[in-house]
Every structure is written in C-alpha cells, then in structure tokens.
Amino acid sequence: MNVTVETLAPCKKLMRVDLDAQAVDKSFDDVAKNFQKEVALPGFRAGKAPLAMVTKRFETQIQEEVKKKLIGDSYRQAVKDQKLNVVGYPDIEEIQFGKGQTLQFAATIETAPEFTMPEYKGINVKRESTDVSDSDISVAIDRLRERGSQFNTVTRAALTTDLVVVNYTGTVDGKPITEIAPASKGLTEQKNFWIAADGEGFIPGFGNQLQGASAGDKKTIEIEFPADFVQPLLSGKKGTYEIEVVEVKEKVLPELTDEFAKTLGTETVDKLRDGVRLELQNDRNARQKRGIRDQLIKHTLDAVQFELPDGMVNQETRNLVYNIVNENQRRGVPKETIEAQKNDIFQSATITARERVKASFIFGKIAEKEGVKVEQIDMVQRIQAMAAQYQMTPEKLAKDLQENGGINQVAEQIVHEKVLELLAQNAKYEDVAAAPAA
C-alpha cells in the first residue's frame, strides 16, 4: 500500500491511498468465498453452490462488499501508519476500483491541532466569600414579602413605588407598531395593562413618565426602543404612546409575622430565617464554584492559541443553534421573532462552539498528561444521575446513549470535570468579598 499525505490547512490534510491489484483480487476471492458459504442457490445445498456461479449471481453485492471493506481497512491502516490524529469522518472521493485494478482513493481528513500546553498549575483565581450575613437574610426575606404584596387602588398621583394601570396604543412614525413588527401586537395596543412607575419594566423610559399621573389622566409618552430590544425590528426606533390612566395601585408588603412564615411552609419567623440562611449558603457555595470554574476555563483558553478543525466547529455550532431554537420555541417565542434573530443566534452559537471545541482539545491534553481517566463507576453514577433527572431507567438511558453515540460525550464531560477539579486543587486563591446578588 502506498500512502501520501498533503497538508491543506493547519487541521486539514489530503491523504491519497493506492492498493495494488493483487490485494484487490485477493479481497474479491475472499469475499466471494464467504458468500459461497452463506448462500443457497436452486439445486444446491447452502454452501455447496459452485464459486463461479455464486460470483456471477451476486456480482454486484460482492463488488460493493469488497469496495467497502478495502476502502475501510486501507483507510484505517493508512491513518495508523501515518500516525494521524483524525477527528470526525473522512470525505472520500476520487475512487478508482475494480477487479484486476489498483484501488485508488483520496480522503480529505481533519486532524487534531498540535500545540504545547503552557503551565496550568498554580493559576491565580479570585475566590468569592460564601459568608451569609444577617443583612443578606433580611434582603432575601424582603424579596419573599414582595411576592406576597397586595396592590390597593389609591386616588392620589402615582409615586415611584406604585403601579399604574393604563390603556395604550403605540405607533412608530405614525404607523401602528404591528406594521413594522407583526409579532408585536402587545406593544401596539393593550387594555388595563399594569406598568411599574419606577421605569424598570416594560420599555425603558416608559414607566417613569407615569409618575405624578392620576386616574383619568390622558397623556402622550415618547420612548426610544433600545438597541438590544427583544424585538429587533424595533431596535433604535422612536415610539409614541397615547395613554389613558385607569388606576393607580399602591404596593403593600405583608408584615413579617409567624402567620406570614406559615404561608411559606415554615412555622415561625425564626425558622424562616434559618431556611433562608441555608438556601443562601447553598447558593453562595454554588456561585463560588461556578466563579472558580469560569476563571479556570478562561485562563486555559487564553493561555494558548491554535487553529481549530472547521468541521468540529461547524457541527457544534449546528447543535447549539438547534438547541437554542428549540428552547425558544418551547418558551413560546414567535417564529417571526426567531427568524429575525437568526443572525445573532448563529453568531452567538459560533463563538460558544469555538470555545467548547478549543476547551475539549486543551482539557484532553491535560487529561492525557495527568493520567485523568473515566472509570466504570464514574459512568454508572453519571448515567444514574441523568436517568433520575430525565425520569427514566438507567438501562433505558444507557441504551439510548449507546445508539445515539452519546456515551463518548458523557465520558468527555466527566474527563473535563475531573480536569477542572485538578486545576482547582492546584490553583492559587485570592479571597474576595462576594459580589452583590442580582
């Protein structure tokens, strides 16, 4: 077998393979004999038909079997001989094949990038405090009280803390908003719509123009849709709203009493505080872990630069776009909105895909150097946890993963997690105060 390899790009090669006619003919003979053993022709017992008759009767099937076997075997042997670290599947073309002929084919392949991993132990990491103060607990409880708020109608003018119930119609350049953004019916007209007068919700700059308004008032509000508005067709445009104030609502928080605590499933205020403290502690612990993980990932991604296989990036991008679109559809996002955002979705998915593919190579190299492996118990525990999450048996999930090629993905996730644990164990930490909760 003769093999030549040409580099087309940093992670792409063209491998040409020639296999002499003698090897081709031997494979034809071997496959034909295997057919002879298996098939039954009229007048002959199974395995007893003359070879020449079998070869003629099953000529097409034998040829396809030989072609498939020879190309597969010679491709794998050529990759092994050339010591190529192939990723993905080859694109095989320029095939010359036939009995008595030399087999020739060309395979365009992508290979793993070659790079030297710099020092990855002793990474400097900021570690947020997980301490929970009494003030943190009070803030969290106030948020719980906010959920139980009552809204009482008042006859005075609206204050910043109030909600205002309005009827409105909206236009852009004198046209109903639906003419510009058909999926934005709710932005064009609403009746008895509640808007916070602090300006935090709905459209930025809208609610705070309702401060000082009273029931029965009519006014015109001018706004500008922000550049990152959820409806891209309206981004940056100026809107005009005709408003009729129906009611002003004052928000009244429930008192912090044992009775209030019981509405949240606890017996007393003290037990409510204990429960909130535990929840905040768990949240802080998880946030600290995420923060450390994100810093370690960013450091390793920034530490080395190399070209990535386009095929892997494109496949990961397609997977991410598919997941994003499915999630938006599940949340009820209109098809028109998804279509309008398709370029942003693709660009975001591409960036994330490149980061994931790059991380897979870096973590793979660290795992190889450090001897990080996936043990059988790791797979069993992960599949059991995933099965519980998806509410199915571990056996059914394992079978589905095996059939869909997901086992390798699960194993890769476990390796990455182990590598991150190794990096975290060897990092240098600077303890810092926790960032304010969002």
Instruction: Please give the largest β-sheet.
Output: 6 strands, antiparallel
Question: Which homologous superfamily in CATH is the superfamily of the largest domain?
Answer: Trigger factor, C-terminal domain
Say what the CATH topology of the largest domain is: Trigger factor, domain 2
In CATH, what is the class of the largest domain?
Answer: Mainly Alpha
Average pLDDT, rounded to a whole number, is 92
Structural class: alpha+beta
Taking pLDDT < 50 over at least 5 consecutive residues as the criterion, the unreliable ranges are none
Estimated share of beta-strand residues? 15-25%
What is the helix tally?
Answer: 14
| Helical proportion, percent range | 40-55%
Can you lay out the helices and strands and say which pair or pack?
Blueprint lengths: L1 E8 L2 E8 L1 H18 L12 H7 L1 H23 L4 E11 L6 E9 L12 E5 L5 H14 L2 E5 L8 E10 L2 E2 H4 L4 H4 E8 L21 E7 L13 E15 L5 H6 L5 H35 L6 H21 L4 H6 L1 H29 L5 H15 L3 H10 L3 H19 L2 E5 L6
Parallel strand pairs: 5-12
Antiparallel strand pairs: 1-2, 2-4, 3-4, 6-11, 7-8, 7-9, 7-11, 10-11
Helix pairs in contact: 1-3, 4-8, 9-11, 11-14, 12-13
Description:
This protein is of the alpha+beta class and 438 residues long. It has 3 domains: 2-111, Alpha-Beta Plaits (2-Layer Sandwich); 150-252, Roll (Chitinase A, domain 3); 288-432, Trigger factor, domain 2 (Orthogonal Bundle). It has 14 helices and 12 strands. It has helices at 21-38, 51-57, 59-81, 134-147, 177-180, 185-188, 258-263, 269-303, 310-330, 335-340, 342-370, 376-390, 394-403, 407-425; strands spanning 2-9, 12-19, 86-96, 103-111, 124-128, 150-154, 163-172, 175-176, 189-196, 218-224, 238-252, 428-432. β3 and β4 form a beta hairpin.
